[in-house]
TrEMBL record:
Belongs to the ABC transporter superfamily. Residues 2-231 form the ABC transporter domain. GO terms for molecular function: ATP binding; ATP hydrolysis activity. SUPFAM superfamilies: P-loop containing nucleoside triphosphate hydrolases. This is ABC transporter domain-containing protein. Keywords: ATP-binding, Nucleotide-binding, Transport. Gene3D superfamilies: P-loop containing nucleotide triphosphate hydrolases. Pfam families: ABC_tran. The lineage of its organism: Bacteria, Pseudomonadati, Pseudomonadota, Gammaproteobacteria, Lysobacterales. InterPro entries: AAA+_ATPase (IPR003593), ABC_transporter-like_ATP-bd (IPR003439), P-loop_NTPase (IPR027417).
Amino acid sequence: MIEAHALHKRYGRLLAVDGISFKVEPGEVLGFLGPNGAGKSTTMKMIAGFLAPSSGTAKVCGHDVQAEPMAARRALGYLPEGAPGYGEMSPKGFLGFIADVRGLAGEHRRARLDAVIGRLSLQSVLHQPIDTLSKGFKRRVGLAAAILHDPPALVLDEPTDGLDPNQKHEVRGLIRELARDRTVLLSTHILEEVEAVCSRAMIVARGKVLADATPSELLARSRYQGAVSLLAADSIAARAALDGMPGVSGFHQDGGDGRLYVFPQGKPVSAEAVAERLRQRGVDYRGLQPERGRLDEVFRRITTGEAQA
Ligand SMILES: Nc1ncnc2c1ncn2[C@@H]1O[C@H](COP(=O)(O)OP(=O)(O)OP(=O)(O)O)[C@@H](O)[C@H]1O
C-alpha cells in the first residue's frame, strides 16, 4: 500500500505540493494527472524518499518514509523522470550494480536479472553505454531497475515517456500484469493511458488534488457522454429542428468538419429520436452517431477551473 497524508513541499516561496493525501491499495493503479508543474514529480520523490516533505507523511507498505527509510525503500520500486543516472555504464553493468545495492545474490540475483532483461527486451543493448541508447531504451532500463527486486509497491514517473506506440502497449501490459498483486502509482500526460491502465485517476493542479475518481466516473463528467453527433448540409436548420427537443441541453458545431454535437440533459440523447425529428422536419443529415465522454475535455475543465470537480 502507498499512503500520503497531508504532504506539503515548499521551494522557497513556491508551495509546489499543497496538502496532498491519498491511499493506493494492492491491485490498484492510481494515475496522477496534471498540467506541467502541478507537483506530480515532487509528490512522487517524497514518497520514494528522495525529497523530504516540508510537512506531512508518506508510507510505503506501512513503513513511514522518513522514520523507517530503509524498510520503505525495500518495499518500493521507483522510476524517476528522465534517463537513468550512470550513463557511462551499460545496462548490464547498471542493473548488476542495482542488484548489488538491493542485496540480491546468487541464483536469485541471476534469475531476477534474466527476468527483467527479458521482460523489457534489453538483450540487444546490454553492452552499450546507457548515454548512447535511444530515449525508449533508456526508459526501459529505468523500468527494469525499478522492478528488479520485485517490490510490492511501484512509483513510476511517466513510465511510457519517449516510447514508440508498440513499446507503450508493451509497457502498459507489463504495468497491468505487475499491478495484479502490487500497488502502483504512476504519472502520465497521456489521457488514453489512464483508460488503458489505471483503475483510478487523481487530477492535480497547483499542488492540490482536484478530482479523485475511476476513469469511467471522470468520463461521465464529460458533456460528450451520452451526446450524439451528425453532419447536416444545413446545420442551422438541423439546430432549429432539434432546439427544444426534450432531453437536449445544447449544441456545439465543430469548426473543422462542421459536425454538429447534440448534448444531453440527464440521460443519453436517443439517436432514433433525433433521426425521427430531423426526418419529420425535412432536414437532410448523415453520419448520425452516439458519442462517448472525452477525458481531455474533463481534464481541461477541471484543471482550468471551468467546472467544479
Ligand atoms: N528543486 C526545485 N527547486 C525549485 N522549484 C522546483 C524544484 N523542483 C520542482 N520545482 C517547482 O515545483 C513545481 C512542481 O514541479 P513538479 O516537477 O513536481 O511538477 P510536475 O507535475 O511533475 O510537472 P511535469 O508534468 O512538468 O513533470 C514546479 O513549479 C517546479 O518548477
